[in-house]
Write a structure and sequence with these properties.
The protein contains ten helices and eight strands. By secondary structure, the chain is of the alpha/beta class. It has a single domain, classed as Aldolase class I (TIM Barrel). Helix 4 links the parallel strand 2 and strand 3. The two termini are about 35 Å apart.
């Protein structure tokens, strides 16, 4: 899907010059044609919204792209579902704050490298249990700052929010999600101490190219 501004009811199947179809495997291969990414983030919107899941598609992706590490946000919010999904070994589990009832599930997995926390924001408002944002001791090693209103917006990343989370998160690796426009944004994030960024729109529209990513990684 083409994600934009976090307005999921308006998402449409993606049309991109990188892929002949909107099928996930074709799109993933298109992204990898730009750069040999080691990680691909996936939001299973059906699962997040309680409309089934796309685990069969995830298994297909893993079978065809065994060298890629998939980070999957699928709305898991209870211990049994988290354990069951992790046992399938499809990828790393992203626990989105918007779907959590409290901080306990994240706390349970805070030392498990297979689990990543996504701190979700709509505008300036945090979405999720306050304890998840306030108690950094429950944060796992990798934390995504998901600014939903900037996804697909070309507004630029929210550097102030990202830097504040990085300072509070101590040794955690903070990843930016939402608003990245081009290589200059990625360079600014790197200077700010942000570990990485989720990028999609700027790859599909050609404003971020593989050679630029390679130069940033070697800098």
């Amino acid at each position: 899907m083409h994600a934009r501004l976090g307005e999921r009811d308006r998402y449409r199947p993606i049309a991109t010059p990188l892929s002949p179809t909107s099928r996930p495997l074709d799109v993933a291969r298109g992204l990898l044609s730009v750069f040999p990414f080691r990680t691909i983030y996936i939001a299973d919107l059906d699962a997040i919204e309680g409309k089934g899941d796309n685990n069969a598609t995830l298994r297909l992706l893993k079978a065809h792209l065994p060298d890629v590490d998939f980070w999957v946000d699928n709305g898991v919010a209870d211990l049994a579902a988290a354990k069951s999904w992790l046992d399938e070994d499809i990828g790393r589990l992203v626990l989105g704050s918007e779907t959590q009832r409290d901080e306990n599930l994240v706390r349970r997995f805070c030392r498990d490298d297979r689990v990543i926390l996504s701190l979700d924001y709509r505008g300036d408002a945090f979405v999720g249990p306050a304890a998840l944002l306030g108690d950094t001791t429950v944060w796992p090693a990798k934390v995504i700052a998901m600014t939903l209103a900037r996804v697909g917006s070309a507004m630029g990343p929210d550097l102030d929010k990202l830097m504040a989370l990085s300072e509070r998160g101590s040794a955690r690796l903070i990843y930016a999600a939402g608003g990245v426009r081009d290589a200059s944004d990625l360079a600014a994030l790197a200077r700010a101490g942000i570990a990485g960024a989720l990028v999609a729109s700027c790859l599909h529209n050609g404003s971020l190219e593989g050679e630029q990513i390679a130069r940033l990684q070697s800098a």
